[in-house]
Amino acid sequence: MSSELYTVFFGFTERPFTLSPDPDFLFWSKSHKRAFTVLEYGVMTRAPLTVVTGDVGAGKTTLVQQLLSTLGPGTTVGLISNAQGGKGDLLHWVLYSLGLPTDPQDNYISMFQRFQDFVISEYAANRHVILVIDEAQNLTIGALEELRMFTNINSGKDELLQMVLVGQPELRDMVTSPGLRQFAQRVSATCHLRPLDASETRDYIRHRLQHVGGTGDEISSFAIKLIYQETGGVPRLVNKLCDMALVYAASVERTCVGIDLIRELLADGLFIKTKEIEPREVYVLHNQISSGGKIAE
């Protein structure tokens, strides 16, 4: 039975545990609320640099999508995903994200002038520009230093350009490295998304089941405890295991996923997980970054 067919069996309006980021399913754990507060803080205060990190599948992209949905017409957004490369390559990505013309033959000076002129023209039209860079851990040290140089477009008390960097824990390590000390000093707000705890995992699963028209009891409390043990509370892993569990349940016409069914699924080897980095929540506001470039905890 396909995963699409179990929605009919359970009477769901759609699959509750897809792997694609979807703000409609956003579950506000304590960590997610804090991270979103940091993002909103960065936007409202026109912070030049905001950094959000978290393990793979923690829900970073979903939070960014939620943020973008709240921005008004006075904001021009350039969204960059999976940008790679060093100096010059990044500027091509930036121009493309803002809908500005770019050519492989362009030199750096002409591209930067085009970018700067655009930011200034948006400011003159009472709009400000936000660059959101997802998967920012893929950038080189040189590219991050280039982003710092972009902040020089800002002058006086007015911030013309803001940048939000979202990435995996490696990004945090890069930002705190000695070579990026000047970059770290321009970061106004940063946080690290941690996985869900046991009670949040329970509430998260029930929230998604109820969101698609379920009762929330389609997966038993004992099954949820085992799901938490196997996933460590990482939302994407929780989704993956729950989705397969519902397929298994529907295939044998069971209206509730029990712990025995989760054990059977695990024994069949259909759930593959990777070792996650031990999370540490970091929450910093108002430039609480030390002069040594370390993130205050």
Please provide a written account of the structure.
The protein has a six-stranded mixed sheet, with helices on both faces. The protein has two domains: 86 residues, no CATH class; 164 residues, P-loop containing nucleotide triphosphate hydrolases (Rossmann fold), CATH 3.40.50. It contains twelve helices and six strands. The C terminus is likely disordered. It is an alpha/beta fold and 297 residues long. 44% of the residues lie in helices and 12% in strands. Pfam families: AAA_22. GO terms for molecular function: ATP hydrolysis activity. This is Type II secretion system protein A. It comes from Litoreibacter meonggei.
List keywords for this structure.
P-loop_NTPase; AAA_22; ATP hydrolysis activity; six-stranded mixed β-sheet; Rossmann fold; 297 residues; elongated; AAA+_ATPase; alpha/beta; disordered C terminus
